């Protein structure tokens, strides 16, 4: 499958000056991108961080659009942002992760987006609450927005699940959203997932390999001197290399071979579900004994023992240890719930 079948959005994390915006836009002109992005209002965690240039950056993006023929895109978080960008003729707007986390804020934006015929991009919330993500999309649909793109940007990592990335990819979220909204274009923001420029390519490739529909990448003409997110931004040359080196997946011609393997997976799954049901039956019997003898349901020493056994097993069989821990946590939670039902 060629690049033309995908959606690509690129540009600096933030508009910093007219020169910086135009230099980056000019360098990206030769790349096949659908939108040139730059943040004008930056929802920073610290009030001492760069907050964006605000309204004055609108004219810089308009100039980039006029000079280089690029469609332009920026983040909006307030009704004023929406109206200023709509009046200026922005081709696309995106709703950021922090805003999507607040249904009241999304609903307010929707009221001001009503009648907008451009594209609205919706990033997933900071947490792994997929219902918030889907809800924000549905609110836009309810006010008549036709062109919507979901943007997967990962979620804030848990202190209990450290990761090499800035944000945990949590690929289960876009996969589940695709199941719920099969016709919704879903692209990935590898910059915010990676947090480091040298990890962006691998995250982007994972998105392509999963069958997602494109990328939203932070690209700056001089990343080392960027006022925000300098570590994760690519140069235009590196972005061009990224597009060139991606493996663009296509439908397999070996469907019969895949069908046979999928049948094996189905058979294995059936066995797994039967074993899980048996496990829960045993948990129920354990719960009865604990209730009869006034024993606490949660036995931390026992759980820690079996968890370490499973982790050791994962090491021996070259299976991701975190995956095994996650599965054990789910099974343990289900067991606890089963025992609580006997109270």
Commentary on this structure:
By secondary structure, the protein is an alpha/beta fold. It folds into 2 domains: about 240 residues, TIM Barrel; about 90 residues, Chorismate mutase (Chorismate Mutase Domain, subunit A). Helices cover about 50% and strands about 10% of the residues. It has 13 helices and 8 strands. An 8-stranded parallel beta sheet has the order 7-6-5-4-3-2-1-8. The longest helix is centred in the C-terminal third of the chain and has 38 residues. The radius of gyration is 24 Å and the shape is elongated. The mean pLDDT is about 90.
Secondary-structure blueprint:
Elements: E1 7-11, H1 18-28, E2 35-37, H2 58-68, E3 72-75, H3 79-88, E4 92-95, H4 97-100, H5 103-113, E5 119-123, H6 130-142, E6 147-152, H7 172-180, E7 186-188, H8 190-194, H9 197-209, E8 214-218, H10 236-245, H11 255-292, H12 300-316, H13 321-340
Parallel strand pairs: 1-2, 1-8, 2-3, 3-4, 4-5, 5-6, 6-7
């Amino acid at each position: 499958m060629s690049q033309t079948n995908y959606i690509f959005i690129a540009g600096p994390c933030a508009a910093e000056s007219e020169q910086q915006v135009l230099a980056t836009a000019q360098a990206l002109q030769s790349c096949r991108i659908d939108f040139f992005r730059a943040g004008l209002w930056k929802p920073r965690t610290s009030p001492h961080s760069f907050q964006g240039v605000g309204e004055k950056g609108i004219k810089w993006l308009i100039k980039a659009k006029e000079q280089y023929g690029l469609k332009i895109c920026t983040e909006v978080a307030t009704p004023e942002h929406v109206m200023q960008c709509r009046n200026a003729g922005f081709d696309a707007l995106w709703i950021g992760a922090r805003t999507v986390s607040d249904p009241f804020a999304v609903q307010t934006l929707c009221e001001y987006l009503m009648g907008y015929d451009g594209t609205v991009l919706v990033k997933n919330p900071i947490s792994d609450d997929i219902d918030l993500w889907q809800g924000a999309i549905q609110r836009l649909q309810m006010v008549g927005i036709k062109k919507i793109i979901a943007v997967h940007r990962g979620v804030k990592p848990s202190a209990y699940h450290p990761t090499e990335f800035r944000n945990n990819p949590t690929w289960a979220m876009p996969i589940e959203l695709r199941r719920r909204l099969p016709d919704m274009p879903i692209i990935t923001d590898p910059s915010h997932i990676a947090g480091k420029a040298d990890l962006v390519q691998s995250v982007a490739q994972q998105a392509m390999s999963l069958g997602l529909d494109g990328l939203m990448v932070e690209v700056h003409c001089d990343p080392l001197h960027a006022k925000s997110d300098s570590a994760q931004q690519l140069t235009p040359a590196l972005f061009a290399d990224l597009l060139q080196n991606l493996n663009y997946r296509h439908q397999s011609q070996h469907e019969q071979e895949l069908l046979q393997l999928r049948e094996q997976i189905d058979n294995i799954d059936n066995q797994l579900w039967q074993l899980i049901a048996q496990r829960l039956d045993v948990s129920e019997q354990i719960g009865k004994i604990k209730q009869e003898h006034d024993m606490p349901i949660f036995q931390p020493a026992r759980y820690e023992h079996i968890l370490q056994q499973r982790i050791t097993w994962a090491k021996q069989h070259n299976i991701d240890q975190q995956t095994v821990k996650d599965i054990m946590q789910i099974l343990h939670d289900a067991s606890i719930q089963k025992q609580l039902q006997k109270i």
